[in-house]
């Protein structure tokens, strides 16, 4: 084989390799074009689907706007009416708060007046109880004085009665007072009978002396205090 034939063979191989590489590139290009076309079709389908959805959303938005335009007037009126009611209720709340504050102040003033009046009442009740105790003590002291005077009078009366009884006994023992020795006068009989009555009174006086003298009763003032407890 000569050199020229070898070179020509090499050139043919190179040409074949070039055509093989070109064919491979063409196949790859065809695959890429097919992939691009598939992507384009997918995008067109997504765009169409999204466009349909967008149109539906646009229709819903148009309907909503129409409803808003239709109901805007009544809603505005209702909102205005509610706003006025809120303002009116706010004014009522302010007035009620002022009344509550005034009532609270009046209640505090009334409680203060009540406490003052109760203090005055308690002071008057205490003064009344003191006066009642003083009056009861004065009455008991006066009763003790009268009891002492009565005892003193009873003692003097008992001495006089004993002397009269002794004198009557002497007269009865005398001859003029014996039976048949003379008739005593009616006045003398009365004088003799008087000591008996005096003895009875003396016995009553002695019984009165035997009664123990009661001291001041602390409960009496307490009962009198209880009598005025109804003023509380």
How far the N terminus sits from the C terminus, by CA atoms, comes to 155 Å
Strand content: under 5%
Class derived from helix and strand content: mainly alpha
Number of strands: 0
- Listing every helix as H and every strand as E from the N terminus to the C terminus, the arrangement reads HHH
Unreliable stretches (pLDDT < 50, length at least 5) are 179-232
Quaternary: single chain
Query: Approximately how much helix is present in the residues?
Result: over 70%
What is the radius of gyration? 71 Å
Q: Name the shape in a single word.
A: rod-shaped
Largest sheet: none
Average pLDDT taken over every residue: 74
Number of discrete helical segments = 3
Tell me the layout of helices and strands.
Blueprint: H1 3-173, H2 186-210, H3 218-227
Helix pairs in contact: 1-2, 1-3
Structure report:
The chain is an all-alpha fold. It has a domain at 125-174 and 184-231. It has helices spanning 3-173, 186-210, 218-227. Helix 1 (3-173) packs antiparallel against helix 2 and helix 1 crosses helix 3. The radius of gyration is 71 Å and the shape is rod-shaped. It starts with a helix and ends in a 5-residue tail after the last helix. The relative contact order is 0.05. The model is unreliable at 179-232 (pLDDT under 50).
In short:
With 232 residues, this protein is an all-alpha fold. The chain is built from three helices and no strands.
């Amino acid at each position: 084989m000569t050199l020229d034939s070898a070179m020509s063979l090499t050139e043919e191989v190179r040409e074949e390799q070039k055509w093989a590489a070109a064919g491979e590139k063409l196949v790859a290009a065809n695959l890429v074009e097919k992939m691009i076309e598939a992507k384009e079709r997918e995008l067109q389908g997504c765009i169409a689907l999204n466009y349909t959805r967008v149109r539906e959303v646009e229709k819903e938005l148009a309907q909503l706007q129409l409803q808003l335009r239709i109901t805007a007037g009544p809603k505005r009126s209702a909102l205005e009416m509610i706003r006025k009611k809120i303002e009116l209720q706010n004014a009522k709340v302010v007035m009620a708060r002022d009344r509550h504050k005034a009532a609270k102040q009046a209640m505090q003033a009334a409680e203060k007046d009540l406490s003052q009046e109760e203090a005055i009442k308690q002071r008057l009740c205490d003064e009344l109880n003191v006066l009642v105790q003083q009056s009861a003590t004065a009455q008991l002291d006066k009763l003790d004085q009268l009891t002492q005077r009565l005892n003193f009078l009873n003692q003097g009366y008992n001495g006089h009665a004993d002397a009269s009884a002794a004198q009557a006994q002497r007269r009865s023992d005398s001859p003029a007072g014996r039976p048949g020795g003379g008739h005593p006068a009616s006045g003398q009989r009365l004088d003799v009978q008087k000591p008996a009555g005096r003895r009875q009174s003396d016995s009553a006086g002695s019984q009165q002396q035997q009664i123990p003298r009661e001291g001041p009763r602390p409960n009496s003032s307490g009962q009198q205090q209880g009598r005025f407890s109804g003023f509380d």
